[in-house]
Write a structure and sequence with these properties.
The chain has one domain. It is built from five helices and no strands. The protein is extended and about 60 Å long.
């Protein structure tokens, strides 16, 4: 499989995850999302008396696209993290060596500050 096809496949998976009943339910049950959504649309409604409807509609569309870009980037980042965790978990001795080295480095830095 070519890298281009892999990228297309990942894009399809991400879009399927974002446009799903599970994600819709998560958004509807998430208090932080609900609070920020309420605040955002309250501001949009307040702006309606000062700006033309077309501009407000363009603003909400652009905001949705902006948030969607962050969603997709966050999902890709999550996939990268999961891949890194899988790779590290496959070699636990390497991880133990890295942790040991980092602990020694931290101890040396702490002793140097004293």
């Amino acid at each position: 499989m070519t890298i281009e096809r892999k990228q297309e496949l990942v894009q399809e998976i991400i879009l399927d995850a974002i446009v799903s009943e599970t994600w819709n339910k998560e958004q509807g049950d998430n208090s932080e999302i609900l609070a920020t959504e309420s605040r955002f649309f309250g501001i949009v409604e307040a702006l309606r008396k000062y700006a033309p409807a077309g501009l407000i509609d363009a603003l909400t569309d652009a905001t949705c696209e902006y948030v969607g870009a962050y969603e997709r980037a966050a999902m890709l980042h999550g996939i990268n993290i999961a891949d890194a965790l899988r790779e590290v978990a496959a070699r636990p001795s390497n991880l133990a060596e890295l942790i040991s080295a980092k602990l020694k480095e931290n101890r040396a830095a702490a002793e140097a500050q004293q």
